[in-house]
Amino acid sequence: MHLPTDDKQFGFWAMRRRGIPNITIANLLGISRQAVSRGLLTMDKKIDLSLKEMADANQIVVEKINLEHGILVGKSIPFNAEAIIFVSEKHGVQVWYKHEGDCDSCQLFKDCIELIWDYSKELGITMETTDNPTLMADELFEKVKKLI
Predict the structure, then answer these.
(1) What single DSSP character describes residue 5?
(2) Containing H/E element for 120?
(3) How far, CA to CA in Å, does 32 sit from each of 23, 26, 36, 46, 141?
(4) According to the lineage, what is the superkingdom (predicted)?
(5) Are 96 and 141 within 8 A, CB to CB?
(6) Would you say 64 and 97 are in contact if contact means Cβ atoms under 8 Å apart?
(7) What is the mean pLDDT of the chain?
(8) Is the separation of the CB atoms in 76 and 59 below 8 Å?
(9) DSSP states of 68-110 as a string?
(10) Which of the chain's termini has less CB crowding within 10 Å, N or C?
């Protein structure tokens, strides 16, 4: 399922994920608190559906879901590995598997680092590891799991 990250309701959701209260969102946008609440309920349903559809498509057994952060934690059946499905404002819905990568020879090295940095910033997570995508992903996995 496509998740419209440029949608007004997604904007409400992203603001809530950053810790902004509904009343503040309403005041900032000049709308009612009820409109924000309705928009968030609608967006939570869309995020729930997107995360679960992505889990089904990737044969991931769901263990936990946190709709406020847009995170699903589970276990990949085909890869026998931990998996995290998450919603990123910049990158959309992403699936990551816990694995030992050979980052130095991978053509996606820069893309992985960019994604990890972007996502950690979206969640307000400070990363200690900075130069190895596998280690960064391991650190992010552990920190994200603590959010849910």
Answers:
(1) T
(2) helix 109-123
(3) 8, 6, 7, 21, 36
(4) Archaea
(5) yes
(6) no
(7) 91
(8) yes
(9) TTTEEEEEETTTTEEEEEEEETTTEEEEEE-----GGG-TTHH
(10) N
